[in-house]
Amino acid sequence: MDVGRRVLGLVTPAPERTVAALHGTEAPAPGLNPRELIFLQHIRWFGTTGSLLMAFGALGVGAQPVRQNPTFGIPVLSLPARMQTSAIAVTMIGTVIVVLAWLLLGRYAVGRFADGTPPRRLSRGQLDRTLLLWIIPLAVAPPMFSQDIYSYLAQGEIAHRGLDPYALGPEPALGRDHVLTNSVPNIWKSTPAPYGPLFVWCSRGIAAVAGDNIVAGIWLHRALALGGVALIVWALPRLARRCGVAAVSALWLGAANPLLLFHLVAGVHNEALMLGLMLAGMELALHAIESAAPIRGTNLTLLIGGCAIIALSSTIKIPSLVALGFVGMALARRWGHGWRGVLAAAAATGGIALTTTLLITTASGLGFGWVHTLGAANAVRSWMSLPTLIGILTGFGGVVLGLGDHTTAVLNITRPIAAILAMFVTLRMLLAVYTGRLHPVGAFGVAMGSVILLFPVVQPWYLLWAVTPLAAWATLPAFRIPTIALSALVSVILMPRGAEFTVFQIVAAAAATVVVVAGMIIATRTVLPWRVDDAGAPKPFPHRTPYAERP
User: Fold this and answer.
1) Which of 26, 108, 405, 551 has the maximum number of C-beta atoms within 10 A of its C-beta?
2) What residue ranges do the domains of the chain occupy?
3) Region of residue 487 (left: phi > 0; alpha: psi -120 to 50; beta: else)
């Protein structure tokens, strides 16, 4: 009996069976009929309208730089900044519209029709064009939902000056009055870079080109993020086909997800490049492992290259290295030979990862200081993190009961326990891959889901660490419905730049959003498929001649 089955024999395999129940294959589906094509066009432009509104509102409430604001003094472009409450409302309205458009688009990507007929799906080209139209306005807008981009710029400038970004934060290295330091959030002004050497190396290159020009630096970082999104769009449908999932279903949930549009494109987060490299590396490596041909020649090159690309992604943010473990376990399953196969696969993938990391660290000249700053983000207490939330609530309860604030002490207990639980789930998923119970993509997604749930700090865009791989594997409503609901909810509840606004501004903007969006739904009731039966068999529009039948 091999090692995986021996270890699994110690515990019940029920969790693997439960996880496997999230997966189902998706049969090929016909394209959209003429009426649905009309709806698709309207959905596409509805979402584009939302993106344009977000981009315009961001001129007033986006994460604009403290200095070098390119819209300052320009008559039309500076207007939103002087009408902040209105700008918040415009941005929030646009946000809700994009989310609603995404949900409507899902009917033609994954949904089933009310009359029980099989779904008709939009084509890959139709989805790509829709995604591109929604991305363009956000790609040219000021940063939104986060000010992390200014930390990226400052860290790049520190490295460009020959200083150690893993020992010095922006304020100690550049000075309090430096143009880049001014826009860094106060909590991070003295914090060294928590990112791996590849990303800081890229930031240093951007600093060498852009210098102190903040706008140029933002554009270059956004180009890097868009490159990561392009890799996600390339890899996701290929991984989906390996799992028997429709490519457009995976792309809709993983790449067209508002979390990705708002935080990786508009927010310019380095997760875009990390996820893109990670998924691309998995696709290349699994192509070699799952091929019927021997692992030599081209397949060997793909395997080594895929593992190296995953290791590259981990030199942006370390959690993506988990993907290499699942590639290694898939390789061990192919090789067989029990413990020997597992150890050989671990040695091979680990050797590639170590070599890649050493090459990047040496070539960049940044050293290994990044290893000591990986926990810098733990200073933030995130309500989305389960162990942190338990600690915060317990500490608050202690204050209410007059026992004192013991939040820090409780966090010192909950966070290690959560880390052990995450390691246990990850180990179970690795063994499930070895025994053939789960596909590596699905098992990796479940493991990353547990890591995110139990991580000390969870930001909204961290959800994409699990959503993107699971979008290529998990198809059943038990996964999709909660994921869609959570993605939509988290996307609409965040403020445009993550900064503080007055209660009056938020309430007024939210009220305006409800009124305007409700009015838009009423106004578009005959041109958008708001009703469930709108997605079914072809029917004429009420009191109108179908577009396809017009001369």
Assistant:
1) 108
2) 31-142+502-551
3) alpha
